[in-house]
Write a structure and sequence with these properties.
Length: 347
């Protein structure tokens, strides 16, 4: 009886030990499976990368209005701030006046001389012709008297000189009449056209400067910082607002070299954050052609000292929960993307 009891107790101890070993093995296997990544899913780690814009005027001036405060949402095309526009209105008025003057001068050159000026030139020709006729008759008369001895050679020479001078006056008057009828030279008209072009360019610059007194939002965004206040004098490089663009929103992630062949531009991914259970849809865009050391912000112990490749993911459905620099986890379904990547390589 004692022998049977001892044998039975020994068997029970062996069974208990085996059960304990089996339980420890199952527990270790469970921990191993929990720590290992699902082979069907590739997990990458990175950070949210939201593009920011530093808003500034292209013109200097005194800041008169600011319509938004920090945290406000702005839409593309909305006026966010304004400069004192009075000096730019004055410059625009001066540019318009200069253009009008240049255009008037060009119109005068193109129109030529007035009819009254042509009549005046014709009258000058007639007058010089009459003077010539009288001078020529006087010369002929003096020349005839010289043969009879009734006049001297000196008087004849004086009459000849008067006739020749009258002939020159006729030629000069006729040339002046021709110029008056022909109008201005083509070179003068070309110079006038150039002056009009210069005035038009100055007017366009004045219009642009006046338009630039309004600071317009380039796209939908959120105001991160309001840097200046109304009444401030600002130059063309002074930041007025700092904006975070609502779209596009990127994720900057990293992939190790062994997994590089499992992704490609256009690969669809899911993005997760630690702050909520919501997932976001995304698509892999840029993949760096050069390897680099994993940044410290990527909190994965197995990748921290390895060379990785940087990639950029475009988030398709971002919201305000995604903040600049927020750590995220990116999941790539290997099974769904393996065939896509293979077909892309075949092409």
């Amino acid at each position: 009886m004692n022998t049977n009891s001892k044998a039975s107790g020994k068997v029970r101890r062996i069974i208990a030990i085996l059960i304990l070993i089996g339980a420890i093995g199952l527990l270790g296997w469970w921990f191993l499976l929990r720590d290992q990544e699902d082979d069907s899913v590739l997990r990458l780690y990175g950070n949210v990368d939201i593009r920011e814009v530093e808003m500034a005027f292209r013109q200097p001036g005194r800041l008169t209005q600011m319509m938004f405060d920090e945290g406000d949402e702005v839409n593309a095309g909305e006026i966010m701030a304004q400069l004192d526009a009075l000096p730019y209105h004055d410059k625009l008025t001066a540019a318009q006046a200069k253009l009008q003057a240049a255009q008037a001068e060009l119109d005068k050159l193109r129109s030529g001389n007035r009819p009254q000026e042509v009549l005046q030139a014709e009258a000058a020709v007639n007058q010089s012709q009459a003077n010539f006729n009288e001078a020529e008759r006087n010369f002929n008369r003096q020349n005839a008297l010289l043969e009879s001895g009734a006049t001297s050679q000196r008087t004849v020479d004086a009459a000849r000189a008067a006739r020749d001078q009258s002939a020159a006056n006729v030629a000069s008057a006729q040339a002046a009449l021709s110029l008056t009828k022909d109008g201005f030279r083509s070179e003068d008209i070309a110079a006038g056209e150039a002056q009009v072009a210069v005035a038009q360019a100055a007017l366009a610059q004045a219009n642009t400067a006046l338009t630039d007194t309004d600071l317009v939002a380039p796209s939908d965004a959120i105001v991160n910082a309001r840097v200046r206040e109304p009444g401030s004098m600002v130059s063309s490089n002074h930041t007025i607002y700092s904006l975070s663009l609502r779209d596009p929103v990127y994720v900057r992630a990293y992939v190790s070299e062994p997994n590089l062949g499992r992704i490609a531009p256009g690969t669809q991914v899911r993005v997760f954050t630690d702050s909520s259970d919501q997932s976001y849809r995304g698509q892999i865009g840029f993949i760096s052609p050069r390897a680099e050391f994993t940044p410290k912000s990527v909190e994965t112990t197995d990748l921290r000292t390895d060379l990785v490749y940087r990639l950029r993911i475009v988030v398709s459905d971002p919201d305000q929960e995604l903040r600049q620099g927020m750590p995220v986890t990116v999941e790539v379904d290997r099974a769904n993307n393996r065939s896509k990547n293979q077909s892309a390589r075949d092409q």
